[in-house]
Amino acid sequence: MNRLKPIALTVALVAAHLATPALAQDKVQFFPSLTGRTGPVAPNATPFANGYADYMKLVNLRGGINGVKTLVEECETAYATDKGVECYERLKGKHGGATVFQPLSTGITFALTEKAPNDKVPLITSGYGRSDSADGGIFKWNFPLIGHYWVAGDTVLQHIAKKEGGWDKLKGKKIGVVYHDSPFGKELLPIMQERAAMHGFELLLLPVPAPGVEQKAIWLQVRQQRPDFVVMQTWGVMTPTAIKEAVATGYPREKMFGTWWSGAEPDLRDVGAAAKGYSAVMMQHGAEPQSTVVQDILSKVHGPGQGTGPKEEVGSVLYMRGVVGAMLAVEGVRAAQERFGKGKVMSGEQARWGYENLNLTQAKLDALGFKGVLRPVSTSCVDHMGSAWTRVHTWDGAKFTWASDWLQADEALIRPLVKNSAEKYAGEKKLTRRPPADCQS
Length: 441
Prior knowledge:
Blueprint: H1 4-18, E1 28-35, H2 42-61, E2 69-76, H3 81-91, H4 106-119, E3 123-124, E4 142-143, H5 149-164, E5 174-180, H6 183-186, H7 189-199, E6 202-208, H8 216-225, E7 229-233, H9 238-249, E8 256-258, H10 265-268, E9 279-282, H11 292-302, H12 317-340, H13 348-356, E10 359-360, H14 362-368, E11 377-378, E12 389-395, E13 400-402, E14 407-408, H15 411-429, H16 436-440
Parallel strand pairs: 1-2, 3-4, 5-6, 5-7, 7-8, 8-9
Antiparallel strand pairs: 9-12, 10-11, 12-13, 12-14
Helix pairs in contact: 2-11, 2-12, 3-4, 5-7, 8-9, 12-13
């Protein structure tokens, strides 16, 4: 694929909204988009980018952010950390300055965490990145909004325990963890190890080198050791490869549970009926084809031929994740405008305040079209995540269907993990915790 095509496409479509004389002087809020339309995660990252772009178009059709239009420009990272950093450097100062970056990569997030404080540009890392960055007292510029990997790991284990009849039923069991051998994959391990120590189950750690197309040795271990369950922290081509190997080795899919980047349609589509019974924990939403926001995008964006990608993917799991990411980015700016000036373009620093003071009530979410999709999100100086709710869905051979009620991560367990890890990071980087006065500024 031509790397420039997505960039040109998105800029051209947004420019079309700005080209008429009446809109020529519109104020523009710039939202850079780091994409993975090429490389090992392309089937998964492309719908995300399309959903992100389409929601931003919908915002403009709804009148912008109190009249301020959104502008999206893409830069292709191919899921490579060095390319992600290059894209960040290229885009951070364009179009009046970047509002917020969403790296869509834990490796890129780790790198940008070092740069964002100096550049005063916030990072939204919903469901990935550094789990300890939920601690806003140390990570002023990072926002793992609506969930991080320790939420995923805790709630998938809650679901398994509930199916077995309680935590005590996991004692003496063996749980395999198939994970991407990278910061992304390893980020899941602390919560798994914490729960294993608490409840007396054994962990079988199974790291898979990227990109993950060769897993025969891993699944030979699974066949030999027969863990009672397998939890997968995989992404891109690694996920369908793992499921195909499980099929080949006869490991039951009903015993396999993915975290949220391991449970979307591209992961299962080619495996089809053979993957029936595979489950994954979801960061609140799943596929949401009937939601109001999806119907609005279909009628107002795709209807006139302004959609970014194929109409068929609208409402799918990863498309929705892009939509949710865009909504969070926009609503942080809207919150900032309430303090710094309605209808004004917000700087990255002002937008950061907005993300730290999000108060997305159910009524607000419903009005935006997310009824039945998301639960309330409320952040603060100390809590940069704002919500810890998940659900589990299961593949029925052709599509995902909900298989659990709402699950909430155990904050009493996770908060100390977050704080201890954040304090360790602060010690290594010689950072001090933000004083109370900084939370009011």
